[in-house]
User: Fold this.
Amino acid sequence: MGKLALAAKITHVPSMYLSELDGPTKDCRKAAIEGHKEISRRCRELGVDTIVIFDTHWLVNSNYHINCRAHSKGTYTSNELPHFISNMPFEVYGNPELGEILAKECNAQGVETLAHANTTLDPEYGTLVPLRYMNGDQRFKAISVSAMCTVHYLNDSARLGWAMREAVEKHYDGSVAFFASGSLSHRFAQNGMAPDYLNRVWSPFLEILDHEVIEMWKNADWKTFCEMLPEYAAKGHGEGFMHDTAMLLGALGWSDYDQPAEIITPYFGSSGTGQINAVFPVSPQTGNAVPAPQASRIKAMTYGESRL
Assistant:
């Protein structure tokens, strides 16, 4: 019935908002913003009606959650970086129908998921920042999915991504885009050093690691990447423990995925972290279930620990 029309790994760095404002950081993230606009253009050409964002700023400690509230509007200030995102207006039209369809299929496939339509919960900035540049005219409905998962297995996140794709293709009448909203390496600059790292990655090790990963993506070496993802998430300080990436690749077929990524915004450093905008072309899938990650019984990194 429905279609997964576009999939992408996207940045949401708060310096994108600073980039709009007059001052020393004016236009510092112009390339990232233009990348979002290009992805939005492609979604429009493909007839996408709803964007589903795997948001690494939505922290959850139990289950997976979907914010499909019909309408959210307000003013957002980041509790994490209030000097970066302050008093940013937002408006999001959700898709309660699709949210319920996604949750139902995830639960049917054994991934406990709750859809929240009747809620006062607003989206986090991993959703709001991309929508600011992709959806200023409210062309798309949007759904946010929790992707900072503190006590979850990465293979469950991959299974969730696959289940959500099947929900769209089997039970939804429309076209959808899936976005993994999060960085590659995510080691912030040490306190007091942030200005020096505005456009840099924290260490040569992390920058080299990120570049090696991008080469795997460009060469469609998904088998290697999926096998190393749990360790990369831990040793590379992956944002949200890289559950967003597991969800996206799960939707695409995990290690059976066969397409090279297209880099829309080249890799860049931001406050110590490694960032990118990349489109993952969607291949038809014929299997009945996504293969589990290599580390199927390994927990993703949680606060203060690594289960590798």
